[in-house]
Amino acid sequence: MTEADRLDTLLKETRTFMPSQAFKNQANFADPAIYEQAANDPEAYWAAQAENLTWFTKFTKTLEWNPPHAKWFSDGTLNATYNAVDRHREGIRKNKAAIIWEGEPGDSRVLTYDMLGREVDRAAHMLKSLGVGKGDRVAIYLPMIPELPIAMLACAKIGAIHTIVFAGFASTSLKDRILDADAKLLITADAGYRRGNIVPLKQNADEAVEGTNVEHVLVVTRVGEKANTTWHEKDVSWHDLMAKTPTTPFPAEPMNAEDILYILYTSGTTGKPKGIVHTTGGYLVGANTSMRSVFDIKDSDVYFCTADIGWVTGHTYIVYGPLSAGATTVMYEGAPDFPDRDRLFAIIEKYAVTILYTAPTSIRTFMKWGPSYIDQHDVSTLRLLGSVGEPINPEAWMWYHVHIGKEHCPIVDTWWQTETGCAMIAPLPGLMTTKPGSATRPVPGISVDVVDENGVSVGPGNGGYLVITKPWPSMLRTIWGDDERFKKTYFGKFEGIYLPGDGAHLDEDNYIWILGRIDDVINVSGHRIGTMEVESALVEHESVAEAAVIGRSHDVKGQAIAAFVTLREGIASSDELVKELKQFVSTKIGAMARPEEIYFTAELPKTRSAKIMRRLLRDIAEGRALGDTTTLADPSVVESLKQQYQEKES
After folding, report:
1. What is the DSSP letter of 212?
2. Predicted pLDDT of residue 262
3. What angle do CA 71, 76, 77 make, to 5 degrees?
4. Rama region for 140: left / alpha / beta (φ>0; ψ in -120 to 50; rest)
5. Quick one: DSSP state of residue 476?
6. Among candidates 473, 427, 7, 460, which has minimal Cα distance to 278?
7. Which of 51, 217, 259, 287 has the smallest C-beta neighbourhood within 10 Å, fewest atoms?
8. What is the DSSP string of 389-422?
9. What does the alpha-carbon distance between residue 485 and residue 487 come to, in Å, rounded to a whole number?
10. Model confidence over 301-346: pLDDT tens digits?
11. Peptide bond into 339 cis (omega under 30)
12. Is the model's pTM score more than 0.85?
């Protein structure tokens, strides 16, 4: 591997944090031998974990592997909703809170497992009355309200395949997904709330269903008269139909482990949407196992994942993972800064949340705002923190640890994807010493490596392609309707080995550092530099809250580094600060990583799930037409940046 082909983490992190003895003593996974046992016989490990689910027909086959296609537990039958709801209703968790819901305007609702089960049964009867059956596809386009998980679970109970479309998508994106899945039914709402504004979901849905095979549009009333809803022949009121629906239990449909549970379309794609297919048995085993291992979930926990169910994080870690483990899961409908910047911390205090799972971009936003919004509230009930969505900068990790975790909460930094179904690289909090910025090591039962261009392991101290070398239960099975694309995209580079598309560095302790997408690697005069390391260097500066780094074309260097920087509250931008930041990066990493340009911005373009849209920043820097901006939390941010960039270039 030549120097020009290497991917290095040039930032050195020496801080380490061991779990406390008190946490070790109560951890679900407390025996370090679990790693070796799972590595020696991963099939036996996963078969044992599968015993934590309720099977209608016990499986006798664990894995059938015909690369790149895997089947897990293929002769077993079960039902996802039975495992997530019904079995808890039948036992001691019957009256335990399953879902705690907080609406943006301040309304709230608590559903016990028994209450949730009754709602799901009625919804299942309702779906059947609309002609939906096993294998039919149901598109769900709802805000973060209880009817969203109820609709998901009702689909799973009858064996229908749900495909959830994030409520931030516009009508065109919704239509593309409805057409690709050939959905029979669309479930939507009259409207939703976002930062006090009304989002016209029904209006978008009306445009999206034209020219599709959708037979009915089932409409939940969320906003009411202010939504100005127009009703059409296909429309059916969720509430009116539920009122007419039997309250009798609905028997869970026995599903083969390899029957499809859901299709989820990946975000940020161009052209035809990419429908990721997850099946019932393997996906549920992965979701349930990671809740118990990575999140150390207990019956006494109140667990709060701040993601949207429209993304895979919400599927796995708001609905199927927590509920299959019998946990109490918190759902919040709105924006984290509405009506004020302390909203999430008010929710933590109100419900005595014990586990918080959020995104690095959210943490960096909290950094920008400062700790005063946290300090207004009692967050002492927190015992475990999690990070998801993209690599977390070491300084953001430390801020999370100090200001939200109050220096006593282990942090589980998780790496995974829509395609993997559940967390793949993450510390087990009762066992693993953590390092700020590293997702540490693969969870038990997962085989990960870092390899060079030829698929050869690079070994400690080197960087390369992150790969998963063995199948795992919650892996995607295919791309809906396009198996060739599945093979080419994920298994086309290294035969029989899954390529996530991320670069990674393996340090001397065999800890994995995610460097971001391979596409985001910048080649500056032959030096391949990961955007993550430059961003981390910038965020380490005391004036910087957040940074997004991209590469743009350069006549001499091939590519030059452009950095978009958000400053902490009270810090003013200046030419002197630009020079200082450039030198700071140069000192931390090396002259080759010195940004060519630094642009100060009050906000970075982010999706409503808090991911920075670096693709749009590249479009701005290269002077290209902007790509799809429908998922942005605030589209005006992009226009402001574009204008600023053009003014500086001129």
Report:
1. S
2. 98
3. 115
4. beta
5. -
6. 473
7. 51
8. SSPPPHHHHHHIIIIISTTTS-EEE-B--TTT-S
9. 5
10. 999 999 999 999 999 999 999 999 999 999 999 999 999 999 999 9
11. yes
12. yes
